[in-house]
Design brief:
With about 500 residues, this protein is of the alpha+beta class. The chain has helices at about 85-90, 150-165, 180-205, 215-225, 240-250, 255, 275-280, 320-340, 355-370, 400-405, 420-435, 450-455, 460-470; strands at about 5-10, 15-20, 25-30, 40-50, 55-60, 65-70, 105-110, 120, 125-130, 130-135, 140-145, 170, 210, 230-235, 260, 285, 295-300, 300-310, 345-350, 375-380, 390, 440-445, 475, 485-490. The strands form 5 sheets. Strands 4, 5, 6, 7, 8 and 13 form a 6-stranded antiparallel β-sheet that branches.
C-alpha cells in the first residue's frame, strides 16, 4: 500500500489529504481563526488572589485575565497514587498559601475563553503525544479506562519498562492498545524533548509568554499520519516546508526525510482531483463503478448507509449481481467512513443475500477494509434483519459538520413544503386572522413561486376567500424569502 500526503497551505486554512494508491482516503482541515488555546502552556503572572472564591486571576498575555481554581493547582501526590485518586483523598491546601500576587507561574489552558469569561487554567501540566500523555510533575503510570481490564496490567508493565527511571508520569491512551514497543519509545522520546524545551523557555522568557503551543495540523501530520507505507509528504508552501523540516529533524527524523516542497504550476490538490472528491464526500449519494450506489444519511444519533444495485446488471444471475455490488460497497463504505470522518453508531444495510457464503465473504471483506482505518472500529455480524451494526470512535468533527451548516431554507430537514402546501397554510392563516381583526386589507408577502401559484392555479380560490371574509387580499413577491416563509400584513 503506497501512501502520499498532500498539504495545501494558506494563511487562513490548512488542508491535508491522505492518498492511498491514487485514491483520497482522509481529509484533515484546520482553520486559523478556529484554533483554540486548550493545551497551550504559558508563563503566567498572578494578577490577583481571591481567598473567598479559592481562586486566582492569572495574566497570560491575552485580552482577559485567565482563571485558576484551587482544585486545578497541582500538589505533590503520595508515592504511587494516581492524581485523580489523590485529589479526592487529600484535603486541598488554601490557594492563598500556594500562590501570591506578582508570582510567575507555569500554567496550561484547560478551557477556552467563552464570551466575557477568560480561559480556565491548571498548574498540572500535561503534554499529549500520539499514543501517550506525559505528566512531568508526577511519577504515576496510568492506562486509559477504555482499554479492557485484562490488558491494562500488561500495558502498564510494558510502559514502565520503556520509560525507565528518568522521571515523569505517563498515561497510555486508547489508540495505543495495539502499539509496538518502537512506537511507544518514539512517543516517549518526543514527549521528553517537548518538555525539555518548555522548561528551557520558562527560564529564558519573561512572564506572560507562551512556552508551548499545542501542535498545529502540519506538525500533527508528522506525528500522527506518517507511517512506514508513507512515500512522500508534499507541501506547497516554501515557508511551511522549512518550518516543518526543522520540526521534523528535531523530533521525527524518519518522517522529515519524506518531506518535499511542491513547486508545480497546478494547485497541489489537482494532482489527484482532491477538490472533486471532497464535493462527492459531502453528497448524500455515492455512485459505485459497477452502477450501484450508496445513500449516506448522517443524523444526531447515528449514521445509516444503504446499498442499492442501481443500474448494475453485469453478473450472470441476480444473486451474483447482489454479491458483487455488496463486495464493492463494502470497500466504498470503509473509505467513506474515513473520508467523511463519521463516528459513533453506524448501521449498514447491505442488499439482502440468500447465500450464507456470500454473506460471510462480504462481512470478511468489510472487516478487512475497516482494519486499515487508523481510528478504532468495531463491526458485528449480520443481524436478523440483515443489517451490520458497527461503531467508529469519534476523534474530531465530521467533514460535513466542519465544512457545512444547516440549509436556511429547510433548516436541515432536507426537504421543504411544496408551494401548494404553503399556499393552503396561508389560506388558513388569513381565515384565522380575519376572525380576530378587521383590517382594511390583507397583504400576503411570500416567495415568488408561492405568489405565482396564487396568481395562476389558485387565483379562483383566492378570490373566493376574499369574498368570504369581505376584505381584499393583495400579493407581494419577495425573492429573499424561502419557500416555506411568508408574512401576512394587516393594512
Amino acid at each position: 500500500m503506497q501512501e502520499d500526503i498532500l498539504i495545501n497551505w494558506s494563511p487562513q486554512e490548512t488542508r491535508v489529504a491522505l492518498v492511498e494508491n491514487g485514491s483520497l482516503q482522509e481529509l484533515h482541515v484546520e482553520r486559523t481563526l478556529e484554533r483554540g488555546l486548550v493545551g497551550n502552556v504559558y508563563l503566567g503572572k498572578v494578577a490577583r488572589v481571591l481567598p473567598g472564591m479559592q481562586s486566582a486571576f492569572i495574566d497570560i498575555g491575552l485580552e482577559r485575565a485567565a482563571f485558576l481554581h484551587v482544585a486545578d493547582v497541582w500538589q505533590r501526590q503520595p508515592d504511587g497514587e494516581p492524581p485523580s485518586v489523590a485529589r479526592h483523598s487529600q484535603p486541598l491546601m488554601p490557594i492563598e498559601k500556594q500562590v501570591f500576587e506578582g508570582q510567575a507561574l507555569m500554567v496550561q489552558v484547560i478551557k477556552d475563553p467563552i464570551g466575557t469569561k477568560g480561559a480556565r487554567l491548571s498548574t498540572q501540566i500535561s503534554v499529549a503525544g500520539r499514543m501517550l500523555v506525559f505528566l512531568p510533575q508526577d511519577d504515576h503510570v496510568g492506562v486509559s479506562q477504555k482499554i479492557p481490564q485484562g490488558l491494562r496490567d500488561e500495558l502498564r508493565a510494558r510502559l514502565q519498562q520503556l520509560t525507565g527511571a528518568q522521571g515523569g508520569g505517563f498515561i497510555l491512551r486508547t489508540n495505543a492498545e495495539d502499539a509496538s514497543d518502537q512506537e511507544l519509545s518514539e512517543d516517549i522520546s518526543y514527549l521528553r524533548k517537548t518538555w525539555k524545551r518548555i522548561k528551557e523557555a520558562s527560564l529564558r522568557l519573561p512572564p506572560m509568554s507562551i512556552l508551548h503551543q499545542d501542535l498545529n495540523l502540519l506538525q500533527r501530520v508528522l506525528r500522527d499520519l506518517v507511517g512506514e507505507s508513507t512515500q512522500t509528504i508534499k507541501v506547497d508552501s516554501r515557508e511551511q516546508f522549512e518550518a516543518l523540516k526543522a520540526f521534523g529533524l528535531e523530533f521525527m527524523p524518519a518522517a522529515s526525510a519524506k518531506l518535499q516542497h511542491y513547486k508545480g504550476e497546478r494547485p497541489i490538490f489537482d494532482l489527484y482531483a482532491i477538490d472533486e472528491e471532497i464535493a462527492k464526500a459531502l453528497a448524500r449519494r455515492v455512485d459505485l463503478k459497477s452502477g450501484g450506489y450508496l445513500i449516506v444519511d448522517q443524523t444526531e444519533a447515528l449514521t445509516t448507509v444503504d446499498v442499492n444495485t442501481g443500474g448494475f446488471v453485469g453478473a450472470r444471475n441476480f444473486d451474483d449481481t447482489i454479491f458483487k455490488t455488496n463486495l464493492e460497497a463494502a470497500q466504498a463504505i470503509a473509505r467513506q467512513l474515513r473520508l467523511r470522518n463519521l463516528g459513533g453508531i453506524i448501521i449498514v444495510d447491505f442488499i439482502d443475500m440468500a447465500r450464507e457464503d456470500h454473506r460471510e465473504s462480504v462481512l470478511t471483506g468489510f472487516k478487512k477494509q475497516l482494519s486499515r482505518d487508523r481510528v478504532k472500529t468495531s463491526a458485528g455480524n449480520f443481524s436478523q434483519l440483515g443489517l451490520v451494526e458497527m461503531t467508529r470512535k469519534r476523534t474530531r468533527e465530521s467533514l460535513a459538520h466542519m465544512l457545512c451548516e444547516p440549509c436556511p431554507c429547510c433548516d436541515g430537514k432536507g426537504s421543504v413544503k411544496t408551494a401548494r402546501s404553503v399556499a393552503y397554510d396561508i389560506f388558513r392563516e388569513i381565515l384565522r386572522e380575519a376572525r380576530q381583526f378587521t383590517p382594511r386589507e390583507f397583504r400576503v408577502v411570500a416567495s415568488p413561486k408561492v405568489i405565482e401559484l396564487f396568481l395562476d392555479e389558485e387565483s379562483q380560490h383566492l378570490a373566493g376567500l376574499s369574498e368570504f371574509i369581505g376584505k381584499p387580499v393583495s400579493l407581494q413577491s419577495e425573492s429573499a424569502m424561502g419557500q416555506e416563509q411568508y408574512d401576512i400584513v394587516l393594512l
